[in-house]
Structures are given as C-alpha cells and as structure tokens.
Amino acid sequence: MSKPISVPYETTIHVRDTCLCLAVQRAARALARRFDEALRPYDLTNGQFSLLMSLNRPTPPNLSSVASLLAMDRTTLTAALKPLERRGLVRVVVDPADKRSRLMALTPDGMHLLSEVVPIWKKSHGKLEELLTDGEHDRLLKGLKKLL
C-alpha cells in the first residue's frame, strides 16, 4: 500500500499568509463589494463604472485599447458592453478607418450617469484612502502597477 500524498498544513498557512495572488484576490473582492454597494442605487457595478470611465475619452477608443486598459480579453469586454448598450449608456460602431474594428463611445445618457456616479466613487475612494496611512495608498498603487 502506497503512502498517501499530502501537503503539510504549515504550507497552507504559509501560502495563506504570504501569497500575493491570494492577497490581491481577497482585497479585490473586498474592494469590489464596497464599490458595488455604493453604486447599487444607480444599477451599476464597479466593473461597469470602470468600463464607462474607460470610454470617457476625447475620441472613441477601439475594443483592443479598452480591453488592454482593463486587463481583460476582447470577448469578456464585448460581453460586459452588452448590458450597457441595452441600457443606452454605450454605443458601439464600426470604425470608419477599419471596417473590421469597433469603436465605443458613451451616449449622452451614459455621460449623464457617469457624471452622477463620479462623486459617489470619490466619496467611496476617499474612505479607502483614510484607511491607509502615511503614504500607503501611493505605495500600494505603485506596487500594483509594477505587476501589470
């Protein structure tokens, strides 16, 4: 009879206490819940807010540039756009310079909603910054950007 394969419990504790991936996932979920709650009265999720904000540009961006900014693949971005399109917040059009490409833009309703929720985001973000002291916000943001 062979000895069962096992991983010591100490390894589990070590991973729990030192794994950057796990720590970032847990923090991301906690942050997402905070912002989802703040944006709920506007029937918007934190991901949708980020997507709308990514479209707030002088000229309409293409799918690839927004997908890159949001660190998601084009298929996921296309799926995320659908509910915003149905609500009339975003418009997706054929790029006149390249018929195979699509450009995205906020509609007037999308811009109006974004202008309503930016103060909510600022307030929520301000509360988070208060939790972090002595330059922790800037150091954390700088560290996270290194991982992209």
Q: If you had to describe this structure to a student in words, what would you say it looks like?
A:
There is one protein chain. Helix 4 crosses helix 5 (74-86). The chain has helices at 9-18, 20-39, 46-54, 63-69, 74-86, 108-131, 136-146, and strands at residues 90-95, 98-106. The chain has a single domain (9-124), classed as Arc Repressor Mutant, subunit A, CATH 1.10.10. The mean pLDDT is 95. It is mainly alpha-helical. The N and C termini lie far apart (47 Å). It is 64% helix and 10% strand. Pfam families: MarR. Keywords: DNA-binding. GO terms for molecular function: DNA binding; DNA-binding transcription factor activity.
